[in-house]
Design brief:
The chain has 326 residues and is α/β, with parallel strands linked by helices. Helices cover 50% and strands 16% of the residues. Helix 2 (59-66) links the parallel strand 2 and strand 3.
Length: 326
C-alpha cells in the first residue's frame, strides 16, 4: 500500500480516473469531515471531487474558501438528491463516478476499493457498507438500524446485489450516461439500482468498503424521517416488487404488520453477521425502533392510498375522454 501524504492528494482537473460526487444540502455541519477524509484517501487513483450544493447555511462558503481543490457547483434553489446526482454526472470527467453523502466519512481506502471492484471484477455498479457514526445516541442508533441494516459492514467478499445505497455507491460513467436518477431525495437510489439490475447490469455489494454515517438524532427528527422513508419505499417497491404492492393495495392494513417482521429481520441480520455489540444495542432500543418503524409504515400506507386515489381518478376520466372521441 503506498505511503500517502494528504498535502499531495492525487487530484486532477483534466483527466481524472474517477469522479466523487457529493450532493449537498444544509451540510455546513458535516461537509468538512467528508472532504478532509476524501482528500486523505490512500490510493493511486487520480480523482476529482465535485460538490453539488443548494444550501443556504453557508456550505458553499466553506467549500469555496477552505477546499479550493474541490469543484463546487452551487445552486440558489434546493436540488433534490436525484437531481444533484444527475448534475454531478454531467460535470464528471472520470470513467468511474462515485457517490457519497455529505454526512458520511469514508474509510481511508474507500476510493481504491470501489474503483478496483469496477475495474477488476467487471462490475457496472458497486455499493459499499454503512457503519454507525452515532453509536452513543439512542435515537441515532434507531435511525441507523432501521435505514441501513441491509448494508452493514462485515468481513466478507463482494457479492451480487440489486440494491445499492446512494450514499456509498459507484458506477461506470457509461452506465450513468444511459440512465438518470429520479428527481427525489428518498428512495431514488434504490429505484435506480433496481432498474439497472433488471436491465442485466452487474451490481456488487462490497462489505468492506465502508463509510461512517452521521445519523439524524432526536425523536421528532427520526420519526419524521422514517415517515418520509416509508413514502420513498413505496416508490421503489412499486417498481421492484409490484406483485407485493398489489397485495398491499388489496389489504392496506397489512402494511402495519410489516414493522414486526422488520424487527425480526434486523435482529436476525445482526446475529448472522455476528455483530454482538450491535445486537445488544439494538435490543436496548428495540421498543423505540418498533415505534419509529410504525411511522415508516404510516408513510408507506399514505403513499399506497394516494396511488390508489390517483388510479381511481385516471379510471374515472377514461369514459369521458372516450365519449368525446366518439
Amino acid at each position: 500500500m503506498p505511503v500517502f501524504d494528504p498535502s499531495h492528494a492525487p487530484l486532477a482537473a483534466d483527466s481524472p480516473g474517477a469522479s466523487v460526487v457529493i450532493p449537498s444540502y444544509q451540510a455546513a455541519r458535516h461537509i468538512r469531515q467528508v472532504l478532509r477524509s476524501l482528500l486523505a484517501q490512500v490510493t493511486s487513483v487520480v480523482y476529482e471531487i465535485i460538490v453539488v450544493d443548494s444550501s443556504t447555511d453557508g456550505t458553499e462558503r466553506i467549500v469555496g474558501e477552505e477546499f479550493p481543490q474541490v469543484r463546487l457547483l452551487h445552486f440558489p434553489h434546493r436540488c433534490q438528491v436525484g437531481k444533484a446526482r444527475n448534475i454531478g454526472i454531467g460535470a464528471a470527467q472520470g470513467d468511474i463516478v462515485l457517490f457519497i453523502d455529505a454526512d458520511t466519512i469514508p474509510s481511508p481506502t474507500w476510493i481504491d476499493q470501489m474503483c478496483r471492484a469496477v475495474r477488476e471484477l467487471g462490475a457496472d455498479g458497486v455499493g459499499g457498507s454503512m457503519s454507525n457514526g452515532t453509536p452513543g445516541s439512542m435515537t441515532g442508533c434507531m435511525g441507523f438500524y432501521l435505514e441501513f441494516f441491509h448494508f452493514l459492514e462485515y468481513n466478507g467478499g463482494p457479492r451480487p446485489t440489486r440494491f445499492l445505497v446512494g450514499g456509498n455507491s459507484g458506477f461506470r460513467r457509461k452506465v450513468l450516461t444511459e440512465n438518470e436518477y429520479l428527481n427525489h431525495s428518498v428512495g431514488e437510489d434504490l429505484l435506480f439500482s433496481s432498474r439497472l439490475a433488471r436491465e442485466g447490469k452487474r451490481l456488487l455489494f462490497l462489505p468492506r468498503a465502508s463509510v461512517r454515517h452521521q445519523n439524524r438524532t432526536g425523536f421528532r427528527t427520526v420519526f419524521s424521517y422514517q415517515h418520509k422513508l416509508g413514502q420513498g419505499a413505496f416508490l421503489y417497491r412499486s417498481f421492484d416488487a409490484p406483485e407485493k404492492v398489489r397485495l398491499l393495495q388489496a389489504a392496506p392494513l397489512l402494511v402495519f404488520l410489516m414493522p414486526f417482521a422488520v424487527m425480526m429481520w434486523i435482529g436476525g441480520t445482526l446475529l448472522h453477521r455476528r455483530r454482538l455489540a450491535d445486537l445488544l444495542r439494538f435490543a436496548l432500543v428495540l421498543p423505540f425502533c418498533l415505534a419509529a418503524n410504525f411511522a415508516w409504515a404510516w408513510g408507506f400506507h399514505q403513499a399506497l392510498r394516494q396511488a390508489q386515489r390517483d388510479t381511481g381518478l385516471q379510471k374515472a376520466t377514461i369514459p369521458e375522454s372516450t365519449n368525446r372521441g366518439d
